[in-house]
From TrEMBL:
GO terms for biological process: cell division. This is Cell division GTPase FtsZ. Keywords: Cell cycle, Cell division. Residues 58-155 form the Tubulin/FtsZ GTPase domain. Coiled coil: none annotated. It comes from Clostridium punense. It holds the Pfam family Tubulin. It comes from the Bacteria.
């Protein structure tokens, strides 16, 4: 893919960290940071308020309120559309968001609709970050609503990659892995006498309609299948239910795993591209079915929290007897009915 024709857009704080990391990896990417809070932008090295940052006017965060975020972006639709038209040669827009939050989660649907009108010839990819199963009820609820928003406009989207926050211990580890994997995927090109992948091939793989997956194979394992199985297990991306795909890109170290043995492990319906390099073993699947298991787990976690909340008996007041040796019964106060209460007021307050 041609980096100068890619526009990486972050919606919200969590997504901003990933776009910032990718811009640090390769300055040829174009980056755009959209947020409702200037405070979220300040730590980012590659965010320039005068050049590639858009803060919704008069706002100071969304408070994880998706409806508030949706209203913000709708109020700023024209300005954002004008901003996107400043990137007329864009071939691929990659939209990043966390699904559990407010600003990105609530605005992604509207942003993609704006983007397709502003740059109708550009492909739109999505990288959406799911929460871990340790998150709270609001995170799960926002995620499911965001999932439905994304799926409702799937006709406007090409490639979707979902990130699984359960696969590492910290957000920083997740972000670093996503940044490295995406950069390798976008740079899967290679020239070799036994096979080459050019920018057009990479574009085709990385923007295929459907869910995408990036696998990094470790060196030194006994065979290609073992390497792929371990890569699947360690991947931070949500895995598809089946590993059928439209396009497969394989770029392996010279004299390492046999790329043809790797390609046999996947059902490929359109084209397989193979090349070699000196540093990394990368396999990219484009055009897989949308994965469902992870979102089902989040729905189950939400249902469980709701069930426990319904069964909760919350006590707000408890009277404590200071005299623990006092066996006398505590005198109970007779509760007045409404008529007795009215009479009480009438007897004491005659105006």
């Amino acid at each position: 893919m041609e980096k100068g024709k890619m526009l990486l857009v972050s919606l919200g704080q969590g997504a901003g960290n990933i776009v910032d990391g990718l811009l640090s990896k390769n300055s040829r990417y174009n980056g755009l940071f959209l947020n409702s809070s200037l405070f979220d932008i300040k730590p980012l090295k590659n965010a320039n308020i005068a050049r590639n940052v858009y803060i919704y006017p008069g706002t100071d965060g969304s408070g994880r309120d998706r409806n508030k975020a949706r209203d913000m972006i709708k109020d700023n639709a024209n300005s954002i559309g004008i901003l996107l038209r400043k990137y007329p040669i864009t071939e691929t827009i990659v939209v990043f968001t966390t699904m559990a939050g407010g600003t990105g989660s609530g605005s992604i649907k509207t942003f993609i609709q704006i983007a397709k009108k502003a740059l109708p010839n550009a492909k739109v990819n999505v990288v959406a970050i799911l929460p871990s199963l340790k998150e709270d009820e609001l995170a799960f609820k926002n995620t499911i609503e965001c999932w439905n928003d994304v799926n409702s406009i799937m006709n406007l989207i090409n490639d979707v990659k979902f990130v699984d926050n359960n696969k590492r211990n910290t957000y920083k580890e997740i972000n670093n892995e996503v940044i490295e994997s995406l950069d390798l995927s976008y740079n899967i090109t290679g020239i070799h006498v036994d096979g080459s992948i050019d920018n057009k091939d990479s574009f085709r793989i990385n923007t295929a309609d459907g869910s995408g997956l990036i696998l990094k194979l470790y060196d030194g394992l006994k065979d290609a299948k073992t390497a792929v199985d371990l890569a699947i297990k360690n991947s931070v991306f949500v895995q598809p239910d089946v590993y059928d795909c439209d396009y497969l890109g394989v770029n392996l170290k010279i004299d390492g795993y046999d790329p043809y043995e790797v390609s046999k492990l996947f059902e490929v319906y359109k084209s397989t591209y193979i090349t070699y390099n000196d540093k990394n073993n990368i396999v990219v699947l484009g055009g897989c079915e949308t994965p469902t298991e992870s979102i089902k787990l989040i729905k189950m976690a939400l249902d469980d929290k709701n069930q426990r909340k319904l069964s909760r008996n919350k006590k707000r007041s408890i009277m404590i007897d200071l005299d623990s040796d006092n066996d006398e019964e505590i005198e109970e106060l007779d509760i007045l009915n409404d008529n007795e209460l009215n009479n009480l007021f009438e007897d004491n307050y005659n105006f």
